[in-house]
Amino acid sequence: MATREIAGKTVEVNDEGFMANPTEWNQEIAVAIAAEEGISELTPAHWQVIDFCRKSAASNGSAPTLRAITNGAGVSTKDLFALFPKGPAKKVARISGLGKPEGCV
Fold this sequence. Notes:
There is one protein chain. By secondary structure, the protein is mainly α. The chain has one domain (2-95). The chain has helices at residues 27-36, 44-60, 66-73, 77-83, 88-95; strands at residues 2-6, 9-13. Strands 1-2 form a two-stranded antiparallel sheet. The relative contact order is 0.18.
Protein backbone atom coordinates (compact mmCIF):
# COMPACT_ATOMS: atom_id res chain seq x y z
CA MET A 1 0.00 0.00 0.00
CA ALA A 2 1.20 3.50 -0.78
CA THR A 3 2.01 6.16 1.78
CA ARG A 4 1.59 9.90 1.63
CA GLU A 5 2.53 12.81 3.86
CA ILE A 6 -0.45 14.88 4.98
CA ALA A 7 -0.11 17.70 7.52
CA GLY A 8 3.38 16.48 8.42
CA LYS A 9 2.31 12.89 9.11
CA THR A 10 2.97 9.88 6.89
CA VAL A 11 -0.20 7.84 6.38
CA GLU A 12 -1.20 4.83 4.31
CA VAL A 13 -3.51 5.54 1.38
CA ASN A 14 -5.25 3.33 -1.15
CA ASP A 15 -5.14 3.66 -4.95
CA GLU A 16 -7.84 6.38 -4.86
CA GLY A 17 -6.11 8.45 -2.19
CA PHE A 18 -8.38 7.52 0.71
CA MET A 19 -6.67 6.85 4.03
CA ALA A 20 -6.34 3.11 4.60
CA ASN A 21 -6.16 3.29 8.40
CA PRO A 22 -8.67 5.62 10.11
CA THR A 23 -6.66 5.49 13.34
CA GLU A 24 -3.90 7.52 11.64
CA TRP A 25 -6.33 10.42 11.14
CA ASN A 26 -6.31 13.63 13.19
CA GLN A 27 -7.92 17.06 12.88
CA GLU A 28 -4.85 18.58 11.23
CA ILE A 29 -5.07 15.95 8.50
CA ALA A 30 -8.76 16.79 8.07
CA VAL A 31 -7.96 20.47 7.59
CA ALA A 32 -5.23 19.66 5.04
CA ILE A 33 -7.43 17.28 3.02
CA ALA A 34 -10.32 19.77 3.15
CA ALA A 35 -8.03 22.43 1.66
CA GLU A 36 -7.08 19.99 -1.12
CA GLU A 37 -10.79 19.47 -1.75
CA GLY A 38 -11.39 23.22 -2.05
CA ILE A 39 -12.82 23.77 1.43
CA SER A 40 -10.78 26.56 2.95
CA GLU A 41 -12.30 26.42 6.45
CA LEU A 42 -13.97 23.67 8.43
CA THR A 43 -16.86 25.25 10.32
CA PRO A 44 -18.74 23.72 13.28
CA ALA A 45 -21.28 22.40 10.74
CA HIS A 46 -18.48 20.61 8.86
CA TRP A 47 -17.17 19.11 12.11
CA GLN A 48 -20.69 17.92 13.04
CA VAL A 49 -20.79 15.89 9.82
CA ILE A 50 -17.18 14.70 10.13
CA ASP A 51 -17.71 13.57 13.74
CA PHE A 52 -20.90 11.73 12.78
CA CYS A 53 -19.14 9.96 9.89
CA ARG A 54 -16.22 8.86 12.07
CA LYS A 55 -18.55 7.53 14.79
CA SER A 56 -20.71 5.78 12.20
CA ALA A 57 -17.71 4.16 10.53
CA ALA A 58 -16.33 3.04 13.90
CA SER A 59 -19.56 1.20 14.68
CA ASN A 60 -20.46 -0.01 11.15
CA GLY A 61 -17.02 -0.66 9.70
CA SER A 62 -17.43 1.60 6.66
CA ALA A 63 -18.05 5.21 5.69
CA PRO A 64 -21.73 6.16 5.74
CA THR A 65 -23.69 6.80 2.57
CA LEU A 66 -25.19 10.18 1.68
CA ARG A 67 -28.59 9.11 3.01
CA ALA A 68 -27.09 7.83 6.27
CA ILE A 69 -25.25 11.13 6.74
CA THR A 70 -28.32 13.28 6.18
CA ASN A 71 -30.44 11.12 8.47
CA GLY A 72 -27.84 10.64 11.19
CA ALA A 73 -26.06 14.00 11.26
CA GLY A 74 -29.26 16.03 11.07
CA VAL A 75 -28.15 17.90 7.94
CA SER A 76 -30.34 18.29 4.86
CA THR A 77 -29.09 17.06 1.51
CA LYS A 78 -29.01 20.66 0.28
CA ASP A 79 -26.89 21.75 3.26
CA LEU A 80 -24.58 18.75 2.85
CA PHE A 81 -23.95 19.73 -0.79
CA ALA A 82 -23.28 23.31 0.34
CA LEU A 83 -20.77 22.12 2.97
CA PHE A 84 -19.07 19.50 0.77
CA PRO A 85 -19.74 20.45 -2.89
CA LYS A 86 -19.59 18.00 -5.78
CA GLY A 87 -19.90 14.58 -4.19
CA PRO A 88 -20.39 15.20 -0.48
CA ALA A 89 -20.36 11.59 0.76
CA LYS A 90 -17.09 10.84 -0.99
CA LYS A 91 -15.56 14.19 -0.02
CA VAL A 92 -16.51 13.96 3.65
CA ALA A 93 -15.21 10.37 3.78
CA ARG A 94 -11.79 11.54 2.51
CA ILE A 95 -11.70 14.44 4.96
CA SER A 96 -12.79 12.12 7.79
CA GLY A 97 -9.96 9.68 7.06
CA LEU A 98 -12.33 6.92 5.98
CA GLY A 99 -12.57 4.71 2.91
CA LYS A 100 -14.84 5.49 -0.02
CA PRO A 101 -18.53 4.99 0.85
CA GLU A 102 -20.26 2.07 -0.83
CA GLY A 103 -22.19 3.15 -3.89
CA CYS A 104 -19.87 6.05 -4.75
CA VAL A 105 -18.30 6.03 -8.19
